[in-house]
Design a protein that fits this description.
The protein has about 240 residues and is of the alpha+beta class. Helix content is about 50%, strand content about 15%. The longest helix is centred in the last third of the chain and has 25 residues. It is elongated, with a radius of gyration of 21 Å. The N terminus is likely disordered.
Length: about 240
Amino acid sequence: MAAFFVLQKNYLYVIINSMKIEINVPSELSEIPLHKYQKFLRIVDKNIDDPNADRFVSMKMIEIFCDFPKELIFDYRIKDITGITDVLTKMFEKRPELVRTFKLGDTEFGFIPNLEDMTFGEYVDLDTYIGDWQNIHRAMGVLYRPITAKIKDKYTIEKYRGDAYLDAMVNTPMDAVLSSVVFFYNLGIDLQNVILDSLEGREREIYQQYLTSIGNGAGTMPYIYSVTETLQRLNRSLV
């Protein structure tokens, strides 16, 4: 069953024996919500020690990211599956610039405009969850909040309310997630110093104790899971 691919209007069409089958293969990180990425990582983690799991993980990747029934994937040749995973691999190789705003439904979310205004509580929640992929939507709830007023590229956002938007943040587009994680990772110690300088008295003392407890900033250097290497390995194993 031979297949080739045609990209039209953000959809990748698979042509099999002159019959067009529509498979929505995302080509941009913005098309993938965080919860799908988290689901795929759970599959990878469960099978990471199984040398025979590559084909299963590849099928789950297509099923999750393309919303395509797994049972239909068995009808494709390995070569055809590799073609789809190659598209996904190239997408995850992209390193997007910091995404400052995005929409979820009718609500526009904005990246925290002034990091110097970040409270100690916000920073602790951000630093706690930004390195934990299964809870990283909690970190996104610190970095991105509904925009309350906007003039051109300037805006204000809602006050941080903890778990208020957790249900929404699992749908954060992956370009926003990855770009903000890299941004915060690179910011590192500089952000700690900004917060430290803004605190006084007891708050400053508590924050210094917190920094000591996480190893003088080690907590701000989260482990960034690279799905690109996983996809490249899957492609090599399927050839």
